[in-house]
Amino acid sequence: MANQRGDFIWYELMTSDANAAADFYGAVLGWRSRDAGGTTRGYMLFGTGETEVAGSMTIPAEAASAGMRPTWLGYVAVDDVDEAVSGIVAAGGARHLPPTDVPGVGRFSMVADPQGVLFYVMRGAVDGTSTSFHASKSGHCQWNELATSDPAAALAFYNGRFGWAKGDAMPMGDMGDYQFFTQNGQMVGAVTARTPEGPPPRWTFYFGVDDIDAATKTAASKGATIHYGPAEIPGGGFIIVADDPQGATFGLVGPRKQ
């Protein structure tokens, strides 16, 4: 079945060193990398061997000079990019890159939600099915987490734009609720309050691994900074949150095998 409006269909690493990033994520997640070629030459594709799940590019000089730091961004499917961007701006968001066509790939735009968190909206050139997000496959994104300055307003925004609905909530004390959200009936992520002393509002994407301890050890040995974990989560899995060697924040999720 083709992806529906509101699905996460792609993940992209904006980085200061694309080759070093490819080496790092290849070691940690087993991703194979290759140049996309054609009109997107210089854009790196990351794949599991079965399918591509993410991409990577060097931060453009103009964006770097404006202060953009290495970061992971998500692509959300829409039926009409121009209409979606207009709705996002009308709802208090912002447009950072106008709707743009990539021949054979699709039409996309970089936008921000009302709290300033960047993401993309996209309509693919073909009605294929992306499995970049897959809740149980290693090497795929398994969880999408938004830490923001106003969780209630953020969830209302994404609900209005993409139909994401509230799921259950997990109390987090003074931090409020860790609010799960669903897309087409599937729990795909959560919205939570950012810590006052922490980074600005952002998405963190958790990629699946077969062994959280082995992956954490590899990540650290390849230059990652581990900020949290491994920590157990409901359901028996474990997570870490880390920065890659270039400073992009990412998460890993998987079982403990020891």
UniProtKB/TrEMBL annotation:
Pfam families: Glyoxalase (PF00903)
Positions of the VOC domain: 7-124, 137-255
Record Gene3D superfamilies: 2,3-Dihydroxybiphenyl 1,2-Dioxygenase, domain 1
InterPro entries from the UniProt entry: Anthracycline_SecMetBiosynth, Glyas_Bleomycin-R_OHBP_Dase, Glyas_Fos-R_dOase_dom, VOC_core
Protein name as annotated: VOC family protein
